[in-house]
Amino acid sequence: MNLNQRQTDILNLLIEKGTVYSSDLSSQYSVSTETIRKDFNLLEELGYAQKHHGFATVSEQYTKEALNLDTKRPLHSREKLLIAKKALDFIEDNSVIFCDSGSTVCELAQYLTNYSSLTIVTSSLAIVDAFRNVPNGPHIFLMGGYVNYDYQLTRSMEFDNSVEQFRFAQAFFGTTGVRYHDGPTSSKYREGLVRQRVMRQSDCNIVLCDNSKFKTGGIHQYASWSECDYLITDGIPDEKMKDNLEHQVKVIYCGEETGNS
Question: Structural domain tally of the chain?
Answer without folding.
Answer: 2
